[in-house]
Amino acid sequence: MAQAQDDWTRVGVKLLGKDAYEDFYVKHGMLYKSPTKELVEVPSLMEEEVIRIAYNQGHFSSKRTQEVVEKTFYIPHIAEKVKRVVTSCIQCIISDSKVGRKEGFLEPIDKEDRPLGTFHIDHVGPMEKTTIHHLEVHKISPFKLLSGVDMRVSQLQELNEFLDKEAIEEFTNSRENLRKEAQENIATIRKEYKKNFDSKRKEATVYELNQLVAIKRTQFGSSLRLRPKFFGLYKVIKVMSHSRCEVEKAGQGEGPMRTTTVAENMKKWVPSLEDKRNVWMAECGNV
Question: Which of the chain's termini has less CB crowding within 10 Å, N or C?
Answer without folding.
Answer: C
